[in-house]
Amino acid sequence: MGIIRWVMVALALGSVPAAAQVADLRSTTQFRVCADPANAPMSSRDGTGFENKLADAFGEWLGLPVTYTWFPSGMGFIAKTLRAGECDVVMGYAQGDELVQNTNHYYTSVFGIVTRKDGALAQVDHLSDPALKDHPIGVVAGSPPASIMARAGLAKDMRGVDLFVDRRVKDPVGDLIAGVKDGTLDAAVLWGPLAGPRVKDDPDLQFTPLLKETAGPKMFYRITMGVRLPEQEWKRELNSLIRRHQPEINAILRDAGVPLVDDYGKELIQ
Fold first, then answer.
1. 201: exposed, middle or buried (C-beta count within 10 Å: 0-12, 13-18, 19+)?
2. Rg, C-alpha atoms of the chain
3. Dist CA 228 CA 82 (whole Å)
4. Which of 16, 61, 157, 177 is most solvent-facing, going by the fewest CB within 10 Å?
5. What pTM was estimated for this model as a whole?
6. How does pLDDT run across 125-148, given as a tens digit for each residue?
7. What is the set of domains in the chain, with CATH numbers?
């Protein structure tokens, strides 16, 4: 799961079970992760997502086996998983969301444009580029770049999809990328961790980060882990691991194809 509310999908507090009001519900014998079973390339029940690999690394650093509570992203996710005491950490959570307590961020990523390497829009690196006009462009409805595109006069060219779906049966981001590949779309503007891993080994496609945008909303976001609000000690323990193992974390993310940028969204981190 990850990125601001639209990417992680709208999580609702719902009712908080009485047990969830206990100061510290976390397990001391397992690294219990709350995750969507079909949120590729981030999390997946088969363990192939990059957040799965990060969870494995944190479990190793903690000396604990990794276990999962699977629940589809959407209404009630936090209430049914983390706040219910079924699991102890949500990987890939946007910094600043009020539903959880955020750890320190362990990476920062950015929106970008997926194009064909030989396509007419291959050189585009900002959303106000006139070259984008009159080309069909895929975008997730309600995402930050959609607002910029509308202001840039691209509303008629936008082909929106809804991310708030059950991704066990639908794959809107995959559909957009497939559209670019088959020529139905000339570009797709997507969140880097969703798009980068899908195109990194594709001989025909490329992902170009949007590092030159000057108008809001911003195109980069810091990604944290989410823990229960009262659990300060648990947060500090995870923060310590993030600090001590940042190079290993970066290596996992880079290997997956996640575009990493500095904390100000200005430069790619190699």
1. exposed
2. 19
3. 7
4. 16
5. 0.89
6. 999 999 999 999 999 999 999 999
7. 5-107+222-256 (3.40.190.10), 109-209 (3.40.190.10)
